[in-house]
Design a protein that fits this description.
Layout (H helix, E strand, L loop, with lengths): L13 E5 L3 H11 L4 E6 L19 E6 L12 E2 L1 E2 L5 E5 H9 L4 H24 L5 E6 L3 E2 L33 E2 L2 H19 L4 E6 L9 E8 L1 E7 L6 E2 L4 H7 L2 E2 L12 E2 L4 E3 L2 E11 L6 E11 L6 H15 L3 H15 L3 H6 L6 H5 L6 H15 L8 H17 L5 E4 L3 H16 L2 E4 L1 E6 L13 E6 L2 E2 L12 E5 L3 H4 L9 H7 L22 H10 L14 H12 L14 E2 L2 E7 L9 E4 L6 E4 L17 E7 L6 E2 L13 E2 L6 H16 L18 H9 L14 H4 L6 E4 L3 E5 L3 E2 L5 E2 L2 E7 L3 E2 L46 H19 L20 H12 L5 H5 L4 H5 L8
Amino acid sequence: MSDKVNPPPAQLPVVWVFGGGITGLSVAHECIERGYDVYLVEPAEDSWENHLPAVGGVARTQWAYIPSDKPVGSPEAPITRALPFVRHPTFEFSGDEIAALATSAEAPGWAEINDSLTRFMNRLIAATRGAGYQSLTVAISAPMPRRVDPSQPRPGEAKARTKKPKSAAAPPAPADAEWPIEPSAKSIEQAEAVRDAMVKVLKDKLDFATAEDDVLRVEGMSGFRFEVRVKGRGIVPGEHGFRYFPGFYRHLFDTMRRTPVLQRGDDRFGAALRTVFDNLVSTEATWLVVTKERLNAETKQPESYERLVNFPRRPPDSVHQTLGLIESFVRELGYSAQDVSRLTTKLFQYMTSSPERRAGEFEDLTWWDFIEGERFSDVCRRHMELGPEVLGAMTASESEARTQGNCVTQLLIDQLSGRRLTDATLNGPTSVAWFDPWRDYLVYRGVKFIRGELVGFTPPGDTPLHAPGVLLPRVLIDGEPMAEDNFATGLRPHYFVPALPLAAMFDAPDFNLTFEERDWHAHGYIDEIKDRFEPAHADVGYGLARKFRAALDRVEGVDAGSEVRKAGDVDALLAWQASIKPDDTPRDVGLGPLRHLTGVQYLFDTNIQFGQEHTLYMDAAWRLSSISQAHFWRRRPTGIHGYRGIVSVDIGALHRPADAVAADEADWAKGGRLTAWQCTPNQIANTVWDQVRRSIATDTQRHRNAAALPVDRSPLGADMARQGAYPDVPRPSVGVDVEANGALIPSCYHLDENVVFHRTEPTSVGGGPARRAPTSVAKNLTPYLINRPGEWKRRPGRVLGLESRHDGYEIQNGAWVFAGTYMKTFTRLTTMEAANESARHAVNAILRDASAPGDRCKIWDPEDWEHPEFAPLREIDRRLYVDGYPHMVEILGLDSIPEALLPRQLDVE
C-alpha cells in the first residue's frame, strides 16, 4: 500500500444568484456546468410548482383564466378581461383528520386551512379588482358519496368474465336498493361539514363562493381531497410580447443549444435529443402597416386607408428579386428616390466607419442627427423618427447612433446571410417552450432554487468567508430573514450575483411597499398606490445599490483604501442615476432613459388568419406590433380551453394620444384623444384593438411562397402573373373584407400584469363587499431601458477590447458582481441577448477572481461580425479618424448626391 496522501479536492466557489430572470438563469447555467454549487433566489411564486420559484422574469408566461361570466353583446361592448392566475389551494386529509376537523374548530388542520385560504383570497381579490369584476364564483370541490354496484369490479380488480345467455336480460335494480357506500356515510357527512366550513370562510371576504357536488372524484379513497378553484372556461397563457429572436443573437442561442429538453419517455437529460433552440421557428417575413391617402371616387375628398407592405426576412434569390424588393418599398411606402439614396448612403457610411469613430462620435450623437432626418421626405421622416418606437419604445431623436446603427447593420446582415433563422419565435408559450425546460435542466444539474428575496446587506459576523469585510446578503423567505449560517461553508469562497432589473437597483418608490402589498404586487395589482419616500418596513424600501453603498460604508476593521472596500460598479450606477434629468414622458418613474414597452393579448373563439407574421403598425398612435402566436405553436389551441386563436400586441408609446374607444357609456366620461396612461383596462384593450382592426381589411390569407416580391402592376406583368409565366412574381393578394365576413371581435383579452392602475373610492355593488374600480394607469413596473447619447459609457461594468474581453466585470467588495441589462454589454440594446451576455461577463469575473478551473464564457461583439468586404474601408476610416479627418463619405461629398441628381418624388400610383 502506498503511503502517498491524495491532495484535497479543489475548493470550488459557492455562487448565490439573486433573480430568476434570463440574466440569473444564465449565470446559474454557466456556473453549474463548471461544477460550482449554485443557489438561485427568486421571490416570484410559480403558477404550478409549489416548491419552486417562478423563472423568466419579465418574459415569463402570465397564466390567466377566461372568465365564465363573460358578457355577450354588441361589437361595441367591452372585451372581457382575463383573470390573472392564482394557484388553487389543495387540502388532503385522512379519515381521522377529517373527523377531527369536523368536530373541533381548534383542530390543528384548521390553522393550515385558514392561512392558505386567506392568502388565496387576498390574491384573488387583488386580481379581480384589477380586472374590474364585481363578483366571482369560487368552487370548492370534494368527493361526494359514491354508491358501489356489487356486480361491478372495484378499482384495480379485473372484471369477471361470465357469459350470460343472450336472451336473458339483467334484472332492474330495485329503486330502494341498499348498495354500499364507499367511503362510509359518516365519513362523507364529516367531509361535507368541513367543506361547508371552508365555504363560510370564503364567503366572509368574497362576494360568494359555492360548493360543487361531485366535481372531483377520487377512486378507492382512504382520505379526502379538497380543491379550491376559480370558476372559468379555461387557463390560458398570457403572452403579451411576441418574443422576437433575430438571427444575430449569439450568446442566447449558444445557451439555448446547451439546454436539453426531455421528451416523453426520456428518463434523463443525457438522452434528450432536442434542445430549447429547437423550439425556435422562423417567421420568414415582417409586414408593415402604413397609412396612406387617396382621393375618394364619390366624394372627391382625400381619405386615409391602411396599406400592408411585405418585407420578406429571407435572402433574395437573384438581383431581380433584390431590385423588386426595393421598388416595392419605394412604391408602397411612398418614399422618394432621394429618400432611398440618402438612407443607403448613410447606412454605407455607418457600416464603413471604424470602431474608434463609433465610440468617439456616434455614442454622443442621436440616430436622427446621424442620418440627418430633417432632409428626408415627410413620410420617410415620420417612419425614421417613430419606427424604432414600434419595437424598442424609443425614437430616433432620443436614442444614440451607435446602438441603433449596430442593430440596423445586424438586421441587414441577417437578411443577406442565408441563416436558417432570420427572425424567429417560439413554438409554444414562453414558459412551456423555454423557461420550464431550462429550470428543469438546472435542477437536474444541481442548482438549488429558493423562494426568497434580496432586501439588503449586513456586515459579516463570525461566518467564515474567503476575505474579511465582505458584506452578507439579507434574504427574506416568507417574510422571515434567512439565517447567516447558510454561508458557513468553511474555506470555500462565496460569490454573490444580483441579477436584478434596474428598477430594483435604483431608489424607486415602487419598492416601498408593505409585505401585504408586495404579496399582491407580485400579481400586478395592489389596492392602492402611494409613493412612499420612507420605507414601510425595515427591510423594504430604498434601491439596492444605495443599500449596498450604505452597508459598505459601515464595515469596520477594513482599511478604507482596501480593495475589499471598493464598489466601483455601484458608485458608477449611483453617479449615473444622479446625472440623469427627469424626462418629460408622462408617468415615467423619474428616470430619463426608461421608457414603457408593454402589451395586451387577445383570445378568439375561432381560428384567425391574419397577423401570422410579425406585423408593425408604423402609423398607429400607440406604435403597435403584433403576431398571431398560436400559428407557430406545435400544439395549437383547439378550443378545449375556451380559445382557438391568439394575437399578441406590443404597445411602444403609452404617452401618445389616440382616439380611445368607448368601453362603456357609463365608463366613458373623458372623451377626446387620450394617452394609454389615462385609460382604464377596458379602454386600453378596445383602443389597441381598434388600431389593429383597421388593418385587418388589408390583410390576406396569404401563401408563404407568394410573398417574396412586389407584384408587377404593368398590363404585361399582370397578364403573365395570371398565366403563371413567372413563378417568382406573385399574384395580387386579395384583402379580407371584414365587414362583409363579419366583425372579428376578441372574446377575451389579457393585459400585462405589470401595469398597475389607480383606483376609485371603495363602492359596494349589489350589496357585496366594497371594491375599487381601476381608473387610469398608475405605474408600469417593468420599464424599458434605452440608450441616450453619452449614457452607455457611464453605465457600470467594464467591457474590454479583443485581447481582454473575456476578463469579465470587476468584483465589488471582494465577493459581489452585478449583472443585468443596465450593465455595459456589446449588445448595447435592452434585449434578451444583452441579459445573457451580461451574465457571461459576471461569470467570467468569478472565474478570474477565484482562479478556479473552467474555461471562460464566450463573448461575441456584433461589430466583429459585420461584412468582411468592408474591413479595408473601416481601416481607412480608422486612420482618417486618428488624424482628425471626417468620414470618406463626407470628404467625397457623397451625401449631397441625392439632392443633386435624383428627383424629389417618384411617379407612384
